[in-house]
Design the sequence.
C-alpha cells in the first residue's frame, strides 16, 4: 500500500463496542436474576420462620390453635419472579439491539437507538414505584 492510498474503513472498534455493550446488558441481567432469586427465597425464609414460631407457641403455651398473622404473604416470591422475568425481557431486548447494531455497522448506516433506554427506564420506574407502594402498604398494615 502506498502512502497516497487511504486504508479501508476499519469498523473493529464499533464491533467491539457493540459486544461490550451487549455484555454489559448480560451482566446486568445476571445481577437481576440473582437479586430476583434472593428476593424469592427470602419469602421461603420468612415462611420457615413463621412455622418455627407456630411450633414454639404451640409447645410452650399448649395452644395449638394460635394463628399469629403470617409474616409472609407471598409478595416477595412474586416480586422475585417479576425481577427474573424483567431480566429475561432485558436479555431479549439486548440481543435484538446487538443484532440490529451489528447489521447497521456492517452496512455503514448505524443510527443510535434510544428506544431500548426509554423502555428500560420506564419499566424500572414502574416496577420500583410498585415496589415502594407495596413496601409502604406492608409497613403500615
Sequence:
Amino acid at each position: 500500500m502506498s502512502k497516497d492510498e487511504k486504508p479501508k474503513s476499519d469498523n473493529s472498534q464499533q464491533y467491539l463496542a457493540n459486544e461490550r455493550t451487549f455484555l454489559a446488558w448480560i451482566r446486568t441481567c445476571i445481577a437481576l436474576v440473582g437479586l430476583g432469586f434472593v428476593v424469592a427465597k427470602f419469602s421461603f425464609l420468612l415462611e420457615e420462620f413463621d412455622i418455627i414460631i407456630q411450633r414454639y407457641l404451640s409447645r410452650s403455651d399448649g395452644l395449638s390453635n394460635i394463628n399469629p398473622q403470617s409474616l409472609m404473604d407471598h409478595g416477595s416470591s412474586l416480586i422475585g419472579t417479576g425481577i427474573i422475568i424483567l431480566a429475561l425481557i432485558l436479555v431479549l431486548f439486548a440481543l435484538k439491539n446487538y443484532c440490529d447494531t451489528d447489521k447497521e455497522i456492517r452496512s455503514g448506516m448505524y443510527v443510535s437507538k434510544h428506544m431500548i433506554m426509554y423502555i428500560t427506564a420506564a419499566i424500572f420506574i414502574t416496577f420500583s414505584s410498585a415496589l415502594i407502594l407495596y413496601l409502604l402498604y406492608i409497613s403500615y398494615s
